[in-house]
Each structure stands twice: as structure tokens, then as C-alpha cells.
Amino acid sequence: MPYVEGFGTWPFGEEWLWEAVATSYLPLASVLDAGAPFTLALTPVCADQLEAPGAMERCAQFLREVRPASHRLDREAFEEAGEPELAAEMERAAAQYADALAELEACDGNVLGRLTPHVAWAGSATHAILPLLATDAGIRLQVESGLASHRRRFGARWRGGFWLPECAWEPRLAPRLAEAGVGAACVELSAFVPAGDRRHLQVLRSEEGLKLVPIDRALIDLVWGSGGYPSAGAYRDNHHRTTRDHRPWANDGSVYDPERALAQARTDAAGFADRVAGRLAGGGLATLAFDTELFGLWWHEGIDFLAALPAELEARGVELLHLDDALGQEEGEPWPAGLDGATSWGADRRLGTWSGPAVADIAFAERAAELELLAAPRPVSARAARELLAVQSSDWAFMAEGELAGPYPRERLEAHLQALREALGPVPSQDQALGNLAPDLALSALYEP
Questions:
Q1: For 235-253, how does the pLDDT look when each residue is reduced to its tens digit (9 = 90+)?
Q2: Domains of the chain
Q3: Which residues, in sequence order, are CB contacts of 224 under 8 Å at separation 6+?
Q4: What pairs with residue 360 in β-bridges?
Q5: For labelling, which of 105, 192, 339, 370 has a CA lying 20 to 30 Å from the CA of 221?
């Protein structure tokens, strides 16, 4: 989740966060409370927003005022058009937002507190593509600021796991992560090793002792790949929307039926468990990684799928483990010779999603900004460093490359670049437009030897 708190509303901006709270974060917290041993990494930039003063009050206002009104207007439009089934679905869907509001109020708006008991893995400050950063100092600023945030909020449970943004990895990161106290990270190996190869089920180890866990692309793509489970006809169509951004249709074009969709989610959880059992018949560790917002926000029934999965795996003799517990049983094999290029879970399994022709200007602008900051007279201001962290978010290139949010990502990038220039100028601005972004800034990391 990019830092959108205070940066726009609809169609791009804070509404993304409010929707994620209502449809993903709060429902997921309930699944985790029930004991499902899923490993949750909460990125610092997401936690910054959940913790920001006034943020959850605005979320509650959105759920209390905006969503009831938008559902009512769409319901009335369907009634006038003589489509009572769609009108009824709008009324039912509105009740889900009312339920989310009730849950938000029940925890006094403390969504971060709801998730805190389950947060295990740390991450970099603003989800930067670490292999694309220009300098070791830039990597240290991202990593150490993120770890400072994680330790303050969740440190008692941290066992060294670090989520690499977009699974973007190259061996030069290993010493920087190890010196920061990181003990494990997930990597995408399918640029080197074909999906389905059993080498994806083997924990690896860098020279520094960092455990590197390949994510299992063969199983992940059953959910996340083209034609994966979320494309089933019974599920809510996330692309066919009303004027007011509601989704009352199923993928097969029929009016959405929640009972039919729930049955499909449970069927798919059973089928997925069958595939996992088959994949692990010869042993190994299958690590399945997804953006949290896939479950509930993008795949409406994804939470139901997750809730059903542990029992289905147990019924097939598959042990579902917290990743930290699994790694406690693994020494790891030495990192293979020849796997020395950069990888990610981007479209090309390299770094092209964030540095290819469509977004090369963004990648170069981010690197230039990093070098400009490091060349400035020392010490630079906290404001300048925070603007650089905002510039480095992976989300701007991702959204621009996929044309997912109109001009919003490039506008945000340019605004942060301009603010960085002003912060480095002779009369630095004291503007606090960055809200609660990176409150645990490790500014000294820029100047470590």
C-alpha cells in the first residue's frame, strides 16, 4: 500500500486505504485471531498510515457516510432501470461496509492494534526496489529506517524475517541485510530455475548466513496467475463496475450471489490443498507469498479461501507452519554458483516492471534523487531524507507501467522530487505534507562507513 494518507481521495488516494481496511485488513485479522498460522509482514509504510493521527477517523467517516450514500444511489439507479436483483445486491453489499464500520468502532479505530499480535516480518521503509537503489547508503536508509519502525511497533516478536519489496533481490544486498540484523528473506528464483522445479522447495543460505527462501511459483500461480482461482465464474468481477465503483456482477456476467461464491471458495481451497499435497509428496518447504490486499480487496472471496485452507491442508497431512518456525528447522543449502543476477516477482521475473522502457525515466529519476541527497552538504534534513524515501516507493513505477492509476503515480513522484529539491535548497521548507511517513527515520544510516 503506497503512502496515500493525505494525498487525494477518489478515484486515487486515501480511498484505497479505507477499502483495504474494510475488505482486507479487518477480515484478515479475524482469520488470524482464529489461529491460522499465516505469516504476516506489515510494511512500515502501511503501518505509518494506520498509525497516522486522524487517519482511521477519516476511514470511519468514509464507511459511515460515503459508502452508504454511494450504494443507495446505485441501488436507486438499478430500481429505476427495472433491475431488482442488482438493486438487492447493492443493498446487501452496503451491509458489509456497515459491518466493517462496526468492527472499526469496536476496536476504537486501532486497526494497527488488531494486526499487531500477528505481525512477524519486517520490511524497508517505503517499499523501494532495493537492487535499483544507487548506493549502499541508500539501501541502508531504507532498511534501517524500516527496521527501526518494525522494532518500535512489533519488536518483541521479531525473529529476523525481512520482506524484500517485490521479492527484488540480488546478491549485493546480502551484506547490507546481514549487518542490519536480518536473518531471512524470500526470493523469486523462477528467472533461473523453471517453475515446478524442486529447487524452489529448498531453503538457501548466503555467505553471510542469511537464509533465502524461494517462493514456490508453481503453487502461487494457481491463485495469482492468469486463469487462477479468482477468475472462476462465481466470484465477484473486480473489473466490471458501476458508475460509483461498486461490483454487483459475478465473473460469468450474472448478478453476484454470495452463497454461490462462498461455496466456490471452499471448493477451491480443497482443490488447492490437493495440489499442495501433491507438490510436497517428496518433502520440502513450499513458501507461498501474496500481497495481503489480494485477499478481500482484489479477490473479494480471498478471505473465505484463506479461512478454509488450514483445515483442508491438515486433512491431507500437510503441515502449515509460520515461516519463522519452518526456518528454525532448516540450515539452508549454500547459494548456488551462477545465480548472481537480479530477480523479482515482476512480470519478467527480473526488474523490468520497475525499470523497463515504459518507466525507465522513473528509475533514473529515483537514482538521481538519491545521489543528489548524498552529494548535499551534511547533515541533510530529516525532511529531505523522508522525501527521498517517498520518491523511492516501488508503487509509482508499478502503477505507471501497468497504467493502473492514470496520471496519479507520476504526479506523486514529481511532487516528491520537487519537495526534495526544496528541502535541499538554501531556504528549506518546513512543510509537513508527508504526514506520518517514516516517523522512525534512521538518518545516520546515510553516513555509516
A1: 999 999 999 999 999 999 9
A2: 14-38+45-115 (no CATH), 159-335+342-353 (3.20.110.10), 356-447 (1.20.1430.10)
A3: 290, 294
A4: none
A5: 339
